């Protein structure tokens, strides 16, 4: 942090928040709010006179509330710049007549109660997001008594209590009597790997090794202490981790395979009683401890949604930011020119975060050094002649690549080619056909439908498969030699969001007995949230089919990932089953009603246009 702060080519803006991001790769405009510090950092010498005289004491967040800080304070010892800031929410000096003591004693005159937030505009080529994570609050695990028993603490609180720079200067003690505890227990996976509706289902990745490290610290500093770890599995998967785990065991730490059900405190001795079903011995055990540490998991940042919106990112089902591709682009965000590093992408330890940060910096510098970037040719184009300025395209675009049109001034939407990723959701939603996709043009896709259904259409299983997941799922089924009907015919689109309703109607009008639209699972769509539009569109089409008297189950929607070859084959076999039930009369009826519906729609559109022309005259 110090090195970064001192680096001549790095401008560090601490105590600041990004308020807005616009633009695209190579041309991002970022607005940063530099919050008022009320202390001039260039003048402050950190003499601490202000803090010494400040009459306000509030719990110190950095020390997990074990000690207090003043209203004028340095957030933590390594803070950059190393100068005081004034916490105006707690300061009495909001009205200097009420206090103003810190300003009086400051020899450098660097305290200014009228300081204001400042908005700074930056022009940047690339952005690396490394906003970190939050820790899980174990309050909902009431059986562990975190809110009821003083001597039940979290692993973060443990860190502060054993740290030389902590509230006790590194003298470890239990909170209730400030005595050195003789029997300490750790409960693993608090808030992680949970399937009971509390906490999170994922593994937090770092807690096992953090506990192993904590037990070694205890053994090192206080050799006589009895330490027990209650766990499900110890996940010591990194380099040197197994050795550390073994060392901890050799030092006498007892690892007990079983998670305690409930913690009860003896009100007199303040000792904690735990009943554990030891799954190794198969016996019910009772343990008495002086102190209990809950090894809490990690969670996505609580303000993750605003970061996601600012940078047009997408999240996985667990709330962490999704990378562009887990193997090929693990530090690229789906938005071009944005890279990700650290725990915002998923729980990880320091080493992994640093590795990822290095990779993100390298990826960013490749782009910056090149000075220009190549974009995929599969982008959309707007036909201004066709556009009726409805603006649906800019609403649909997951990348904010289309600047909204203005109906009043008849200003057409503007497409930022560099920001467009080519999902095709805009083209599929545009009712005016005013958006043309390069390489996946309507005519090309329609021609494929016609070609598939040219001969014996009633036998074919017509499938639209997204490039990234379902199409690859089909490949997987093929390379795994899985059996599925030979009548399956796939049409590849970049995203399921590209599948326009007119493709589906076109297929039915050409005698398709069944149509499948398949794409990535909801949180896996490679175009942020384009898949949501697939779902909405399909709901609309099902409704219409139902109204027209066409069996909605002849149109299927399936989420199939690249690894789900089995599922792909199964869905194809099921479709084959449905095809057997579709009679020639049903297909004929479908073709007829859809043709009539199309004719009616055309009539209505013509009438509308006529009326419009009359009004214009
Ligand atoms: Fe597969 Fe969007 S990329 S559904």
In short:
This protein has about 625 residues and is of the alpha/beta class.
Features:
alpha/beta, five-stranded parallel sheet, 617 residues, binds FE2/S2 (inorganic) cluster, Alpha-Beta Plaits, FAD/NAD(P)-binding domain, four-stranded parallel sheet, Rossmann fold
What does this structure look like?
Among the domains are: 134-299, FAD/NAD(P)-binding domain (3-Layer(bba) Sandwich), CATH 3.50.50; 378-439, Alpha-Beta Plaits (2-Layer Sandwich), CATH 3.30.70; 440-617, Rossmann fold (3-Layer(aba) Sandwich). Helix content is 30%, strand content 20%. With 617 residues, the chain is α/β, with parallel strands linked by helices. The longest helix has 33 residues, at 584-616. The protein is globular. The relative contact order is 0.07. It binds FE2/S2 (inorganic) cluster (FES).
Which structural class matches the secondary elements?
alpha/beta
Bound molecules: FE2/S2 (inorganic) cluster
Question: The CATH topology of one domain, please?
Answer: Rossmann fold
- Give the biggest sheet: 5 strands, parallel
């Amino acid at each position: 942090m110090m090195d970064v702060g001192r680096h001549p080519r790095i401008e560090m803006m601490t105590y600041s928040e990004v308020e807005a991001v616009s633009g695209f790769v190579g041309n991002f405009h970022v607005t940063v709010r530099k919050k008022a510090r009320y202390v001039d950092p260039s003048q402050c010498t950190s003499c601490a006179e202000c803090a010494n005289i400040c009459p306000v004491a509030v719990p110190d967040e950095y020390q997990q509330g074990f000690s207090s800080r003043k209203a004028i304070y340095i957030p933590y010892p390594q803070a950059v710049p190393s100068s005081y800031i004034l916490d105006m929410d707690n300061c009495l000096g909001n009205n200097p007549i009420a206090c103003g003591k810190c300003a009086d004693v400051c020899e450098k005159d660097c305290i200014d109660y009228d300081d204001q937030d400042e908005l700074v505009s930056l022009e940047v080529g690339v952005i690396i997001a490394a906003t970190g994570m939050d820790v899980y609050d174990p309050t909902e695990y009431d059986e562990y008594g975190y809110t009821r028993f003083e001597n039940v603490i979290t692993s973060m609180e443990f860190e502060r209590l054993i740290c030389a720079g902590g509230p006790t200067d590194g003298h470890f003690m239990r909170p209730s009597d400030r005595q050195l505890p003789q029997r300490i227990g750790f409960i693993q996976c608090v808030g992680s790997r949970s399937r009971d509706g509390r906490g999170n289902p994922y593994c937090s990745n770092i807690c096992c090794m953090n506990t192993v490290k904590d037990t070694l610290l205890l053994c090192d500093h206080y050799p006589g202490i009895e330490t027990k770890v209650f766990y499900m599995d110890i996940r010591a998967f990194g380099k040197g981790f197994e050795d550390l785990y073994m060392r901890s065991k050799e030092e006498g730490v007892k690892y007990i395979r079983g998670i305690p059900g409930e913690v009860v405190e003896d009100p007199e001795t303040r000792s904690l009683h735990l009943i554990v079903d030891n799954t190794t011995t198969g016996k019910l055990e009772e343990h008495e401890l002086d102190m209990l540490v809950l090894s809490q998991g990690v969670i996505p940042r609580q303000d993750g949604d605003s970061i996601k919106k600012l940078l047009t990112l997408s999240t996985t089902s667990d709330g962490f930011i999704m990378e562009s591709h887990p193997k090929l682009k693990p530090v690229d965000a789906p938005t071009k020119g944005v890279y990700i590093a650290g725990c915002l992408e998923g729980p990880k330890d320091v080493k992994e975060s640093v590795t990822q940060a290095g990779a993100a910096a390298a990826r960013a510098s490749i782009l910056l050094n090149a000075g220009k970037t190549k974009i995929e040719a599969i982008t959309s184009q707007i036909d201004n002649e066709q556009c009726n300025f409805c603006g649906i395209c800019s609403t649909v675009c997951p990348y904010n690549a289309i600047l909204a049109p203005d109906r009043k001034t008849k200003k057409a939407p503007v497409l930022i080619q560099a920001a467009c990723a080519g999902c095709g959701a805009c083209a599929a939603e545009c009712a005016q056909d005013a958006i043309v996709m390069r390489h996946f043009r309507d005519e090309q896709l329609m021609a494929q439908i016609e070609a598939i259904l040219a001969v014996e259409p009633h036998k074919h299983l017509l499938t639209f498969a997204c490039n990234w997941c379902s199409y690859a799922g089909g490949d997987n089924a093929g390379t795994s030699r899985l059996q599925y009907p030979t009548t399956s015919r796939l049409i590849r689109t970049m995203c399921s969001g590209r599948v326009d309703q007119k493709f589906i109607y076109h297929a039915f009008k050409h005698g398709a007995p069944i149509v499948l639209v398949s794409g990535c699972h909801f949180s896996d769509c490679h175009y942020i949230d384009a898949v949501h539009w697939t779902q909405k569109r399909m709901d609309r089409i099902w409704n219409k089919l139902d109204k027209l008297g066409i069996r909605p189950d002849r149109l299927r929607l399936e989420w199939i990932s690249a690894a789900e070859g089995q599922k792909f084959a199964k869905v194809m076999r099921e479709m084959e089953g449905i095809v057997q039930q579709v009679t020639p009369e049903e297909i004929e009826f479908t073709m007829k009603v859809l043709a009539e519906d199309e004719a009616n729609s055309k009539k209505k559109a013509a009438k509308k246009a006529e009326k419009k022309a009359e009004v214009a005259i």
